[in-house]
């Protein structure tokens, strides 16, 4: 090769190097496809995982459940508990370049409270008015003292979106979300991928090391793990309990474990449409019989190798609000049969059992089907894609629904929206004015002992007669390649993307 040709070839190499500088891309496997990417309207756990990259909140939690500032620097509570002043972080911009300030925070909280279809309204319903004190300070005027408020603002109720983008897109905002997180939205292909890229003007950009993140919904857990082992994924959530040992034995992989704030339960249709018109919906003794037909510990051992924590409450036995006076019932088939006979139920009682499409849910449902049959229940398992199952639940098109809740730091977040008459997540339409009064009172009680005592009064009504049969609290199981560093499990199960690095 002569000198001119050598120089020409060298120039091409330099040109390619300049135009194709390598980008670091983190690939995360999700167990489902999220619903709408609008914090006000969203419902799914996997959606919250994506929001952790897109949409910063006023406050966050750390690995020990301490509340830490994110878009807010601090807050002050008035002595009477009816006024909360929040100081905001300066120098923050949304992904469209618009500034985040007190007016933007006011817009977002009011959007949560007033937007049609908002799932956040019930979470911050005690907020009566949001006042702008100065460009970086807002003051929340409350209808009554509201103990869970700051905890609610550590999740979607505290997420801030660009007012300019929200006004422009209206109810279509979720198709192109604009927030103030470390990554900005690029594209979404339903059931295939969600792509975000690093936001260069992020307020905490020195903690962001990866250029792009691709979220891949892969419902089949076996396929999800195979993708991780083959290098097509770098991190996956909800590893199967039965695959834990396989991950431990693979030198290329790492296992990360935590304890979940939420629960796995069976939602029972009590008053949501025609499908509630059956003995299960009409008679709480039939619901009690169904509970007594199940062995929570056996489900845990058979399906999950004993990794879950069985329980009959909306909070874990590890939680300070746990109520020991309501121990988990043991399986009692003769008593279950007696209750069905007492209720005048002809057996077998056929019930439509809607189950989200993932291997562990299907396996647990099949074990429950077998157990319940011995007491006189005929569970007709109907496997349904997760987002579709939520829509079916809202319409009342089910009798039993195997549904998990990822949980909140304050117990109010695990019960109020599910057990009050007009709760937005009360898919079974359980309704008891006495319970409404107690759960509202628990929101305003000034101390933990007082709140716990009120929850005990509510539990005495909810646990035997309510619309959710609590089964167990899941162990958070993540797996990732050794190339990924900086990953920490937080009890809410969300993937914090700051501090993550790919070697």
Briefly summarize what is shown.
By secondary structure, the protein is of the alpha+beta class. The protein has helices at residues 3-19, 45-54, 102-114, 149-152, 163-169, 221-229, 244-249, 279-282, 284-292, 296-304, 333-342, 359-373, 386-395, 412-419, 433-444, 448-465, and strands at residues 25-30, 59-61, 67-69, 72-77, 83-88, 127-134, 137-142, 183-189, 193-198, 212-217, 235-237, 253-259, 263-268, 309-310, 349-356, 377-384, 400-405, 468-473, 475-481, 484-485, 501-502.
Describe this structure in words.
It is a single chain. The chain has 503 residues and is α+β, with helices and mostly antiparallel strands. The chain has 3 domains: 56-175, Dipeptide-binding Protein, Domain 1 (Dipeptide-binding Protein, domain 1); 181-260 and 476-502, 3-Layer(aba) Sandwich (D-Maltodextrin-Binding Protein, domain 2), CATH 3.40.190.10; 263-473, Dipeptide-binding Protein, domain 3 (Roll), CATH 3.10.105. The protein has 16 helices and 21 strands. It has helices at residues 3-19, 45-54, 102-114, 149-152, 163-169, 221-229, 244-249, 279-282, 284-292, 296-304, 333-342, 359-373, 386-395, 412-419, 433-444, 448-465, and strands spanning 25-30, 59-61, 67-69, 72-77, 83-88, 127-134, 137-142, 183-189, 193-198, 212-217, 235-237, 253-259, 263-268, 309-310, 349-356, 377-384, 400-405, 468-473, 475-481, 484-485, 501-502. The chain has a 7-stranded mixed beta sheet, sandwiched between helices. Helix 9 packs antiparallel against helix 11 (333-342) and helix 14 (412-419) runs antiparallel to helix 15. The longest helix is centred in the last third of the chain and has 18 residues, at 448-465. The protein is globular, with a radius of gyration of 24 Å. It starts with a helix and ends with a strand.
């Amino acid at each position: 090769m002569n000198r001119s040709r050598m120089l020409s070839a060298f120039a091409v190499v330099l040109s390619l190097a300049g135009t194709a500088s390598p980008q670091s891309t983190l690939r995360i496997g999700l167990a489902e496809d999220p619903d709408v990417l609008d914090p006000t309207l969203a419902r799914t756990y996997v959606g919250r995982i994506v929001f952790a990259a897109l949409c910063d909140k006023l406050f966050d939690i750390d690995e020990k459940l301490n509340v830490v500032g994110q878009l807010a620097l601090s807050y002050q509570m008035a002595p009477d508990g009816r006024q909360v002043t929040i100081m905001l972080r300066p120098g923050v911009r949304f992904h469209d370049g618009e500034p985040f300030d007190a007016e933007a925070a006011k817009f977002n909280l009011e959007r949560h409270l007033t937007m049609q279809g908002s799932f956040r309204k019930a979470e911050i319903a005690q907020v009566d008015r949001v006042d702008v004190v100065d460009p970086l300070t807002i003051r929340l005027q409350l209808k009554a003292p509201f103990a869970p408020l700051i905890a609610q603002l550590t999740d979607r109720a505290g997420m801030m979106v660009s007012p300019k983008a929200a006004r422009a897109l209206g109810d279509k905002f979720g198709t192109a979300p604009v927030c103030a997180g470390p990554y900005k939205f690029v594209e979404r292909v339903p059931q295939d991928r969600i792509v975000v890229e690093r936001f260069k003007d992020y307020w905490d950009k020195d903690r962001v090391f990866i250029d792009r993140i691709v979220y891949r919904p892969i419902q089949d857990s076996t396929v999800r793990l195979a993708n991780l082992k083959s290098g097509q994924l770098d991190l996956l959530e909800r590893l199967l309990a039965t695959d834990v040992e396989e991950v431990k034995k693979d030198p290329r992989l790492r296992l990360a474990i935590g304890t979940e704030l939420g629960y796995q339960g069976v939602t029972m249709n009590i008053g949501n449409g025609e499908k509630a018109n059956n003995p299960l919906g009409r008679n709480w003794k039939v619901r009690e019989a169904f509970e007594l037909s199940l062995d929570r510990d056996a489900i845990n051992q058979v399906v999950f190798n004993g990794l879950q924590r069985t329980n009959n409450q909306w909070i874990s036995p590890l939680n300070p609000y746990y109520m020991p006076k309501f121990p988990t019932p043991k399986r009692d088939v003769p008593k279950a049969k007696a209750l069905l006979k007492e209720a005048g139920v002809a057996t077998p009682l056929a019930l439509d059992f809607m189950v989200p499409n993932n291997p562990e849910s299907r396996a647990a449902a099949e074990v429950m089907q077998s157990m319940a049959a011995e007491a006189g229940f005929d569970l007709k398992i109907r496997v349904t894609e997760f987002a579709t199952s939520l829509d079916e639940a809202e319409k009342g098109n089910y009798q039993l629904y195997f549904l998990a809740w990822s949980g909140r730091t304050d117990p109010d977040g695990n019960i109020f929206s599910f057990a009050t008459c007009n709760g937005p997540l009360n898919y079974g339409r359980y309704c008891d004015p006495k319970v409404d009064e107690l759960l509202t009172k628990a929101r305003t009680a000034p101390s933990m002992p007082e709140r716990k005592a009120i929850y005990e009064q509510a539990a005495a009504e909810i646990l035997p007669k309510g619309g959710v049969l609590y089964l167990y609290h899941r162990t958070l199981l993540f797996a990732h390649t050794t190339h990924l560093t900086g990953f920490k499990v937080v009890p809410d199960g969300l993937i914090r993307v700051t501090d993550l690095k790919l070697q």
